User: Fold these one by one.
Assistant:
Number 1:
Amino acid sequence: MSLRRAAARGVFWTALDHWGYQLATIVTVAVLARLLTPGAFGLVALATIFTNLLKIMADQGMADAIVQRSDLEDEHLDAAFWASVTFGVFLTVTLGATAWLIAGLLAEPALAPVLAVLSLSLAISGLSNVQRAILKREFAFATLALRSLVSVVIGGVVGVVAALLGAGVWSLVVQTLTFQIVAVFTLWMASDWRPRWRFSWSHFRELLPFGTSIVGFRVLRLANTQTDNFMIGFFLGSTALGFYIIAYRLLRLMINVTTSVIGSVAFPTFSRIQHDAERVRRLYYRTIRLAALVAFPGFLGLVVIAPEATRLLFGPAWEPSIAVMQILCFAGLVTAVNFLNPTVLKALGKTSWRVVIMGITAVAQLVAFAIAVQWGIRAVAIALVAVVALMAPAWFYAVHRLVGFRVGTLARQFVSPMAASLIMIGAVSAVKNLVQSVGLLPQILVLIGTGVTVYSIGLWLIDRPLAREAIELARLAIPNPDGRGAHPNGSEGT
């Protein structure tokens, strides 16, 4: 299978993974939002800040180091596995022992038992990091998609049942742990690799430099994605955080079903061609153009239908989330434009550059959120948009140093998707005024149908080559009954 076909097939299965995962997640959240209070969501979100931080440290960047490394040996895999497991167990014990201290510092007594139980996720996740890296390295995205879908569905069912039985906030805790346990089980079933009882310090040290920079970047990225949650939870309380989290949930959904789909496949793909500068540059243009193709209409469309979507999915009690959601969509637009840059830097081995830019971003967000939080969750959302927009040029400059793209050529990649998206927004807004008297579900179905139709026609009229390229890649990605990807010319592609 050519690299182009492998990448296209990877996008297909990753899209299935992300879209299926997000569909199952949003259905679960929609049900739980009608059974639980905003405070319950806020409490678990506050606990997740700490578990996500320590989970990054438990992995130590070993999974990405395995994917990126060209000369991989079995000893590398064994060393990475035992390091992840050992550190995961250590961090579980540490967080469990300090949960009451953390809860006291945050003046949230109910946080302590939740945090102590969720600390188990650190040990659980360490059991499957290497298996996931091996499958990603081998472009086995179909297996990863199946694992993700099974895990999220089972976890969601368990969480909803627990909520119906009156478990309250614990239904969210049980949902999280069930998801991770099922994920570990399915990954071990899918992967033939098994760890051996050995640990090579020399092989561990070979992975460590790349892994350390990955950890640094991810810690800073987590700070960027969780500082707003922490500030809101600390200064405004768990209920305000619950409203913010639901708004942010739909933003993450849009990111995960658009640019993250492509980004997951981009890392191993760019890693394979990292020594061919011209090929990297061509792929950079095409990838960022295709990302804009799906992200621009998604985020702009959500701005228009956010009120109806929020009321339908979560109920009228969550209306304070609507304005926050609409503001955050503009952060999503900037993220869609910028999403590929950190991945390219990682694939080309410039992980330290990512750490520097992310560190500056983390400081900027900390200052912005500290100032904005006194005016409420909407002001925090506006501050997030501002910082993301101000930092985007730094990411592009770093990639430009390596890839040498032309600014004019890059800018042209966004013109057609944006023009078609603006036409779509006009049409959807006009139709929205005509269907306000019908139920929420028919409204949303009509608006989405209108948006998809108008955007598709607009793109075809504005940039027919781009529309044809998207159709070609879709045909290449979707497997035939014989298990091979389709190609319009019957060839492998390049």
Number 2:
Amino acid sequence: MNMNTESGKISTRIDALDALRGFDMFWIVGGSAFVITLANFTDIAWLKGLSMQLRHVPWEGFHFIDLVFPLFMFISGAVIPFSIVSKLERGEPKNKILIKAAKRMLLLVILGIVYNGALQNGFTDARYASVLGQIGLAFFFSVLIIIYTKSLKTRLFWLIGILSGITLLQLFVPVPGIGAGILTPEGCINGYLDRLILPGRIPYGKDGWMSTGQGLFEPEGILSIVSSTGITLMGTFAGFILKTRRYRELKKVIILLITGAGLTLLAIALHPVYPIIKNCWTTTFSLITGGISFLLLGIFYLVIDVWGWKKWSFYFRIIGMNPLFIYLFYKMVKIRDTSVFLFGWLTGDYENKSSHPVVTFGAILLVWGLLYFLYKRKIFIRI
């Protein structure tokens, strides 16, 4: 999902961005599956606990895997000061930048619909909202805000306005027949608006998981796009901190870490009265994911770009340079079956070979090998 058209340029300046993006994508392209299968295979207690963090919370609460999507959006925002703002500083017209962002948004929306299987069923019962579409829309709106505002104060006003607006809607605007502030799959205003406005199938049901029929809410729906614009904007603030020459590197790290800790603690403090819920993207969810994203970027930047310890991050940077390709590849190619074909003999008489740790680890090796092949030949699928 490399939604950054300037990734090749960025990586030479801020290696932490590519490494953190790759670390984020690693859990999608096999990392989570490996830990979960290893925990099931060994039945080790601490691995069992870790594997639980790699399973999405059905509704209220937060696990590590719930960070993956918003962290990606945060990183896509962090590159805006380097890519978009740098173009403005070189004198590129705003309308040209905006048109390019709009084309990118449209293509990602279309790819997202295809990713959801619309072509498979001839658009019958299609799901039109998607992860890729949400990324494209949030990025576009963030670019729109950044290029038509000049001051930090104005951009901060936009961010606070988005987060406050979502909070007011979710807590104080009543859903007909249910009431206000009822943050359940039936009662959250996100789902109500999606059922009212979104075309196609609403996929998620009463228990918080995807259902086969028409559901109650769409986690990538209308208000979720607004919320994700907020976290993308948070990423732009992190990008401006990294880009500025006003501060020394260690001061940048301190600012990132303090901001991250403050946002995370605020979310935790608010959680008892305003729950952290990924599927309707509550403001507390935006705050905790934004906070952890600031913390992770601060740590990665300190270790990789300030201290210069880069070699260990090469594995993740390879993934981070071609995320769109690997995201689509994983959907279209049954890489686990390929791993069974090549490494299944190593599992002995294990009945379900595809869930054996050797096979899941083999799948990770195959994917990374492919990404390395593309990297060596400077092939990067970008939008």
Number 3:
Amino acid sequence: MSVFCDTGPVAKLLADGKRLHLQHGPIDLIIEAFGAHQDIEAAYRRAETVFRPTLVSLVDELPVLRAPTLLERRPRGAIALRMWRASLAHAAESFVTPMAAVAGAVADHVLAAMLDGGNLSRAYVNNGGDIALYIGEGQVFDIGVCAEPRQGNPSAFVRIDAVSGIGGVATSGWDGRSHSLGIADAVTVLANDAAGADAAATLIANRVDIPGGEVIKRRPASDLSSDSDLGDRLVTVGVGDLPPEDMALALVGGAEIAEDMCERGLIRAAFISLQGRSVSVTDGGIEAPLSSPVPGTGAATEGTDIEHQRVGRTV
């Protein structure tokens, strides 16, 4: 793989010779494909090619992408349109901008290019914990769910197979790389694609909250990032120990919006964690997380044969 230029996109195989690393500015992807050697090489070339203009194309449309999502405010680019569509599904119920789906949309876009004309058995594109998945017939991924993101160790696993229809996993929380209005340690969502999972995880995490809260520290998003799409809205920067009744109230708030999203077909499952307590919401077709990994199946999380990929933590 090549280095495009000193300050531009970079693509290289990692030391294991199996995974591709694509990076440009804040976008940092880890990619792995499974199949015949020639098919993997071709898929990586397509990923590298489609990745080149990604950051520039998003920067060109930032004014629209940072504004509240509206039906009449439709962006132009392929990735921007994925972001817009994922956020538009929630725009009537919540404040949301297309930026809520940016990481997942980039992952979906690169994965789609990899699969175009290819013959892979499995593949994933991990964009900082927001992951686009392809699972071929007879294949599975075991996805790790981290209840305590700072530790980064999966506390449970969910098995996803080809017939599940799940193509995306994303996680949000107050201590991740993006700002959150809520206090969830982690909200991991399974959905049909990564953009949809990303937007949903963001919004569910926002609703895991309590009114007031003396142990919760908040600051205007604009103080932390002058160009934040959240403007002057207060985002969480610290959460102290919560009494049990406050944790229960916050988890109910997240579970209610997750249930609504499941009923509307927007997500397949959500796993919500807060200070050692958790709740799972599924559409009935997804089993609760497994208590331990299933060896030999592969999973987009650390602790399995796909190393250094974490679901349940955005870093």
Number 4:
Amino acid sequence: MRWKEFCRSQEGASLVFVAVTLPALVGFGLLAVDASRVYNLHYDLQKGADAFALAAAAELDRSGDACERADRAIDNLLANQHSLSDLGIHTLVPGDITANYLTELPADDDTPIDYGNDEIANCPTATPDEQRQARFVEVVINPTQITSIFPATFLGAASNSLQPSASAVAGFGQNVCKFTPFYICNPWEGTGISLEEAANDLTERRRLIELRPSGGTGEFPGSFGYLEAHGGPGAAELRDSIARVNPGACFAQDDGVEIETGAVIGPVRQAINTRFDIYEGSFNSKKNDPNYRPALNVRKGLGTLGSDCNPDWDPGAGFMGLPRDDCFSDPATCGREADPPTLLGDGDWDLTTYWDTNHPGTPFPAGSGWADTEASRPTRYEVYRAEAFDSSLNEEDSLGGEDGVPICYSGGTPPSNDPDRRIVYAAVLNCQEIEDDELEEPYPVETFASFFLIEPLPTTGGASDPNLYIELVGINNEGGGEALTNVARDDVQLYR
């Protein structure tokens, strides 16, 4: 009887079920813990990859040492820590990270990167020209071992460890707004001197650049033209964008630029001259409009402006604007009659005569270190700025009676150097390369740059000189003066 009762009894049955299912429950629990550990470790590694990629990409500004600086940013700027791997609490070190520098990315994110064609091998030690080509950086966090709590080998796995990794791709681009819609064919193309080197070398920035309008003779280093303005194509929109204090034009370096064709020099000349307190043609009605105010310093070597704000283009002795390079007095010098012409001067300009004409009896500014020698001659832009920020110099009469104070403009907002109206911006194109490679619009932009307008565009006997005379101020945020600080925005973003 007792045996039968024992056989029918259900007491203790749960213990059997627990004994059978407990290993599975524990196993699933351990798997959940391991999955959480791996996920959080991968999350920490991915945060590190993203941060390192962004830090490195921020240095890819098309400079000759871009990759070198990007590697230093990875090594020194950031500290990323994780604590769930077999290393315990571990701070990522350079040996944990691999950086690959790329010239391009596939248009489709699902397409693998073509390392054979797009990667710049050993970019941190590559040539400056190669480093300037780096547009993107892929940062890979090397596999990091984590040993699972769950005995995976019990189920036939080869190991109880996992090795999560992470990667990120970031890139650098530059956008510009409030930008004068000019393009310039790189005057230094083919000289062996990069724009970066020119911007950081006083002797190069001091060289006068003669810009000749592009046209039937084709593009060559030093020719210039116009970009489609913010409101679209059209002479009126172009003219207004050049004349306004804050033009609406915006451009992205990575998108390239499109050219405004058919623009004529007449309206453009009038637009440029508003910056010199000269209001001609349709701009005569703008002389009381602060949106078209002139520069703070408009000294230009011209006689008194008439009531219609047109100057005497032949003022006589005692007047002198900032002069051109000495070699420009003879068309055969400076290579200006070559084919194609060389439109860069040699940086040798007559500081002494300019200063004695416009500031008779006044010494060079204290502490400037200026002298009319190869070693100590300033740029014309530096002289202009010294005059602009010293009211006694700006108001000082030349031998002919001209000072630098605007007299035609009568708007309510006074002239100022914010922004500096003697500065124009331009997209710099390698026109010879574009022509040789038969590239089509939108054309690639080598860099955006700022330039100093040395003199207005004159009209003499009904004919106007279509050439612009300028100095390089800077590219990006490199070079003299304000470079592009007022118009440029660097964009660094993750792509993958």
